[in-house]
Amino acid sequence: MAGVTSTPDMQQAVVAYQRGDWTAAERLCKSLLDTNPDHFEALHLSGVIALQTGRSQEAVKLLSRAVAVNPDNANVHSNLGNALLSLQHPADALPCYEAALKIDANYADAYINRGLVLLELKRPQEALASYERALSLRPDFAEGDFNRGNALHALERPEEALASYGRALNLRPDYAAAYINRGTAQRDLDLPQAALESFGHALELRPDDATAYNNCGTEMRDLGCPEDALASYERALHVNPGYADAHINLGLALAELRRPEAALKGFERAAQLKPDCAEAYFNLGNGLRALCQSSVALQSYRRALQIEPGHVSAHFNLSLCRLRLGEFGQGWEDYEWRWRTEQMAMDKRNFSQPLWLGVEPLAGKTILLHHEQGFGDTLQFSRYVKQVAALGARVVLQVQAPLAPLLTTLEGPAQVIPNDAALPGFDVHCPLLSLPLAFKTDIDSIPAGIPYLHSDAAHRALWEGRLGSRTRPRIGLAWSGGTKHPNDYNRNVALGKMLPVLDSRGEYVSLQKEVRASDAGVLAARPDIRHFGSALNNFADTAALVELLDLVVCVDTSVAHLAGALGKPVWILLPFSPDWRWLLNRDGSPWYPTARLFRQPKIGDWSSVIERVTAELAEWLNTQVRT
């Protein structure tokens, strides 16, 4: 063919290349090209060497010239594709591999590289077909099984991906990348211990593999070992200080270890390294929000959404920031993104009847208002039932079973049913926490008329008998909420830390239905705290007990909402970074006029809160104790 000559110099160049003396090989090729610029073999080999030494632009020029000289050589088309792919031009590389395969339909390597490009172009089904064709030609091709696993992973078929990585490792037991990707498939299948072992094998083969260290850290976090995870992320960053994902994960581990300032630095570094990464800015927003820097956090969430407009968690957390700042207008709209989050998507009610958000008239219609999230949320937002009924609707209120007896005292519902009962017919529906959006609630229009809940006389009489005669002011205590709450560790106070509050001039009543093992011994040693536990059958019992008290002192749990809805004085102990509903920088709540808020001055500082409550309670008792 034109331009192709087999000469002793070319043969020497090939031998030099094969023994790893690429400088000598290039020198010989250059000499040939000085004499004959269209020498195909010299162009091809020079292009391959340029590619392998990181000079991709030069490689593209040389290999393009080689293709022009000899367009019928499959290898040069494939290598030109490799050079273009190294320059991040997958769309340009694809025709090169197609050309190679048109020349040689049994070119297994070209099928593999074609699959790589298709996967890069988000065409995993076609990539899978390309890999399977390569494997049909070379069944013992470990790279084929490895890449087939990658395509199956992209197609969200983790069981098959796992099997494909396993075959690659049977063929090549030293295939570190296959161990890493096998671990990823095992993680997708919720097999964290197996995944950790796979990443460990990869590190035995490649002790300086930052990706394996990063992935090990993620499995350690999933296994509840954040300290070990932290060490693994630090190893990843020691190997590769510019690894943005490892900085994000380092921040997540530090956040779990309750080191928010250090976590924030990790997120900031990730955003610096990867300014086009929505996840980096999302986590930076979370770090800022944890430190109560809500206005700055808003900017980070907005940046994440500029990069990735459909980032569900960024939309949702943006809403939490706005609501905490009292920006209710946009906040309620953004809060509807909660239904797309992984945490709440499973709980979304998909009725055939339409969702009502305040637009359509309700007169003469039956509307189902249904609970979501926790007991406290239901207690707080059931206040809107009266307003819905005032629009002329017949209101059916569906709530958690323990709340149903108490919520029959609400004004407005025609029917209150527990969540395990059959639903009656209805025309439209609305989740309780969407009602502020429906009514366009702002700070000044919160329906805060209290009490809007009441205990019934029979329950009060029962609890009056249990409490006996009153000799001192009665103070209710609640120091912890449900363990499944996402902010559980942050909002609770160990009973032992709360004991200084107890002034002997008061009578103290536990409002805890359940007591954690860590608090049980402390409670048992304090007969001055009356505890009824399992006698609190449901919230009707708790409400009757609360109505017989003079004051409730509690953390941010359903008891706070119950006391507020009953119109009882309630002192609420809040963490430094509080839930959105308590807003910021205020001692009272627009939701509950009888509430006083005692906020941590810094993260984890319950001691200051307890000192303040102790002093305030002593003053309050001075006004209550009769001489």
Kindly describe this structure:
The chain is an alpha/beta fold. Among the domains are: 366-445, Rossmann fold; 457-624, Rossmann fold, CATH 3.40.50.2000. Helices cover 56% and strands 7% of the residues. The protein is built from 32 helices and 10 strands. The strands form 2 sheets. A 6-stranded parallel beta sheet has the order 7-6-5-8-9-10, with helices on both faces. The longest helix has 19 residues, at 606-624. The radius of gyration is 33 Å and the shape is elongated. The protein starts with 7 loop residues before the first helix and ends with a helix. The model has no long low-confidence stretch (mean pLDDT 93).
Give a short synopsis of this structure.
With about 625 residues, the chain is an alpha/beta fold. The chain contains 32 helices and ten strands. The strands form two sheets. Strands 7-6-5-8-9-10 form a six-stranded parallel sheet, with helices on both faces. Strands 3-2-1-4 form a four-stranded parallel sheet.
